[in-house]
Automatic annotation (TrEMBL):
GO terms for biological process: methylation. This is EFMT1 methyltransferase. The keyword Methyltransferase applies. It comes from the Eukaryota. The lineage of its organism: Eukaryota, Metazoa, Chordata, Craniata, Vertebrata. Transmembrane segments: none annotated. Pfam families: N6-adenineMlase. It comes from Sitta europaea. GO terms for molecular function: nucleic acid binding; protein-lysine N-methyltransferase activity. The keyword Transport does not apply. The gene is Eef1akmt1. One of its GO terms (cellular component) is cytoplasm. Keywords: Cytoplasm, Methyltransferase, Transferase.
């Protein structure tokens, strides 16, 4: 009777040692992420996925937009971030007791944020959980993933459903007319920057007197 594991290729002890070292390094890297030094809300804690057309804001831009959102929402305000996770992360970093925030996002990696995460696909703009009541957010910040009128129009349905009135939209400068048409928002002076430069000129639009001018 042949030995059962005769035909199982054996790794050389050298390969085995290299493999173990690789796994160990990987564990240490993961360990560093989960240890105290790692902030799950910091920008870049979840890396950009270009296939989902994700581009994170620079730290400065995310801070500026988060600050604006808190001011616009007012004390005890509710903020919704649609496809704008880096603003959400900045808001969580502030750890404010004065506001609450939800993230509506297609990328399920953000489900690490628990109950505040709502899976969102702009192709189904009103396919939202029942506990997201109409006009229940003081401000909605949205950054539609694609520069197309269809994407803007569908995201606009969600924005209008959720907001009590205030809208902060971030999208390309080329979308100025469509943004006015679908959401009644005007371009502000503030120029949002990304952590990597985008080919398209990017702008912010609001429908209220904001601090971004």
């Amino acid at each position: 009777k042949m030995d059962d594991d005769d035909d199982i290729p054996q790794l050389s002890s050298h390969t085995l040692a290299a493999l173990q070292e690789f796994y160990l390094e990987q564990q240490q890297r993961e360990g560093m992420k989960t240890s105290q030094g790692f902030n799950q809300y910091s920008i870049g804690s979840i890396e950009e996925d270009w296939q989902l057309s994700q581009f994170w804001y620079s730290d400065e831009t995310a801070s500026c937009l988060a600050k604006e959102a808190v001011l616009a929402a007012g004390k005890g305000g509710r903020i919704a971030c649609i496809s704008a996770p880096s603003v959400y992360q900045k808001l969580k970093e502030q750890d404010g007791k004065d506001f609450s925030v939800c993230i509506l996002e297609y990328d399920r990696r953000f489900s690490v944020y628990g109950e505040e995460f709502i899976f969102y696909d702009y192709n189904h703009p009103l396919d939202l959980p029942e506990n997201l009541l109409p006009q229940s957010f003081d401000i909605v910040i949205a950054d539609p993933p694609y520069l197309s009128e269809e994407c803007l129009q569908k995201t606009a349905e969600t924005i209008k459903y959720l907001t009590k009135g205030k809208i902060l939209l971030c999208t390309g400068a080329v979308m100025e007319e469509q943004a006015a048409k679908h959401l009644g928002v005007k371009m502000c002076r503030f120029i949002p920057k990304h952590s990597r430069n985008l080919a398209n000129e990017f702008r912010c639009y609001v429908n209220y007197a904001s601090g971004l001018d």
